Structure formats: C-alpha cells, structure tokens
# Entry
Amino acid sequence: MTSLPPEASPRLDQFRAEVGKLKVREGRPEPERVSAVLGAIVVVIGIVIVVLAYNKSHNTQKPLDQGDAFVIGLLGVGVAVAGAVVWLRYSLSRWSRYWLLRLVYEDRAQTDRLIATLEQIDGHLAAVTGAAGPVPTTAPAPTAAGVPTAAGVPTASLGPPLQQVRPPSIETIDPVI
# Structure
C-alpha cells in the first residue's frame, strides 16, 4: 500500500466533502459496532449454556435428565453459532467498508498520477514531433506505395488527446452493506 500524501490536495478536499455528504449520524454508536458486541455476548452466553448443560448431565444418573441436558447443550451450541455469525457479519461489514473507501481514495490518487504521467508523455511526444499542442489524430494521405509519409518518414496516428477518466464518485457507491 502507498502512504497518504501529507499535503492537502483539491482531490483530497473533494473526497472529504463527499464523505461528509453521506448521511452518517454522529454522537451515537454505529449499529455495526453494537451488533458485533451483541454477537460476541451471545457467543459467550451460548458457551455458558453448553457448560451448564454438561455439568447437569454429569451430576445425575437419571437418563431423562441427561437427555434434557443434552437438548439444552445443543441449544447452547446453536446460540453460540448464531452469535458468531452475527459477530462475523458486522465485523466484516465495518472492515470491508473501511477498505472500500481506502481503495476508492487510492484509485483516485493513482488515476491522477497516471493522467499526469500520460500528459508528460504527450508533452514529450509533442516536443519530438515538433507539434505545439496535442498530436494530430489524422495521418497524412497514403502515398502511391500505401504508406503515409511526412517528409519521407512513415508516421502513425497517436490517437485523440488525453482525457481525464475518473472512477465513479463516492455517492454512486451504495453506503448500506
């Protein structure tokens, strides 16, 4: 991963403004964190139920009581598994959202660097070909031999001038996962 640049840039300010536009309530705990904590508590409760059922089944000689303890133990395992699923879902939700935003930010920074590099290449090509602006997109008419030439040197079209291509705005990403 690349480190974030220490200086503020217009892109970073725009990104912060877009994140600020998201409808996130401040001052109250996030539902993901509360649900993850509740899931962890439910896991602990399920484990306690299993231990109590195990203790009950080994402290009696009656088969019916042992059967009841077995059923209670299975319910405790189910509760623990359900709590683990809730904890995992909400923990991964927070983690995935963080990395998605990080990925969007880094992709935008990389796109800006790529555009700057391509503009430098375009400038170098313009200097080599002697053109003052973007390189023309049309090649000279073909000669009798079928190869376009300019002063006896074969040429090729370099395509349209560079255009900035940006990843989608953060507003187009669904914030609810």
